[in-house]
Amino acid sequence: MRGRKQKERLLSIAAALLLWQLASMAVGQKLILVSPVSAAIRLGQLFLQGDFWKTVLSSFLRIESGFFLGLFLGGALAVFAARIPFGETMLWPFMTAVKSVPVASFIILSLIWLDRSGLSVFISFLMVLPIFYFNVLEGMKSTDQKLLEMAEVFRIPGGRRFCYLYLPQIRPFLLSACRMALGISWKAGVAAEVIGIPDGSIGERLYEAKVYLDTAELFAWTVVVVVVSVLFEKIFTGLLRRIFKRLERL
């Protein structure tokens, strides 16, 4: 079943590349839409540049720092909201505002508050914070109340209570939040870099590609963002599943 799914995904990628090629041929102007071949050639040239990996690593560290800050703080606030009376009510206006305000508004405000080098960290953090908060909170709310009452009666320690009662309920919600938040963190983080233009970032390279009308480089860096985001999502969610399994065996 897994092998079949992988084959289907490869076929879908091939179909998407074919559609891209046909669209490029139909437009007939490289300035507007380059072919996947041109983008691949430009990507190969980028690989050979000395500062390519440094640029990717710089943006990766900034964006994933924001992601992990959102993960830990969002999870902690969800536990607080679930366990403390009126905790959810107290946090509701803040989380709703963060979830609803356009990312462009936060970026513009952050340019006033922060140095541009920390802009993508803060924006990534803000965008993923409500995702983790609401998902973990929903997972904790779905825990069987009778089991919680039993744990209270038998005075089960908080650590074991979390591992055996809350963790199985939170797991699917947290994994879903990670898959969603990782993509959003990269979208928001790179958008912040394009506006803030921190030195040695993917956003800076995208901005330069726009200024010089280098569409091939623009698509090449976009492919880099997609690939790095997807690879890290696979690695991180796989690691998270292993951690869950080990905790459940304790």
Describe the protein:
This protein is mainly α and 250 residues long. The chain is built from 10 helices and no strands. It has helices at 2-27, 36-47, 52-83, 87-100, 103-113, 119-141, 145-153, 158-196, 202-211, 215-249. Helix 3 (52-83) runs antiparallel to helix 4 (87-100), helix 4 (87-100) crosses helix 6 and helix 8 (158-196) runs antiparallel to helix 10. The longest helix is centred in the C-terminal third of the chain and has 39 residues, at 158-196. It is globular, with a radius of gyration of 22 Å. The mean pLDDT is 87.
Discrete helix count: 10
Q: In sequence order, what are the helices and strands, one letter per element?
A: HHHHHHHHHH
Gyration radius, in Å: 22 Å
What low-confidence regions span 5 or more consecutive residues with pLDDT below 50? Answer: none
Helix and strand composition category: mainly alpha
Brief write-up:
84% of the residues lie in helices and 0% in strands. With 250 residues, the protein is an all-alpha fold. The chain is globular and about 70 Å long.
Give me some keywords for this one.
250 residues; mainly alpha; 10 helices; 84% helix
Could you outline the blueprint of secondary structure elements for this entry?
Blueprint: H1 2-27, H2 36-47, H3 52-83, H4 87-100, H5 103-113, H6 119-141, H7 145-153, H8 158-196, H9 202-211, H10 215-249
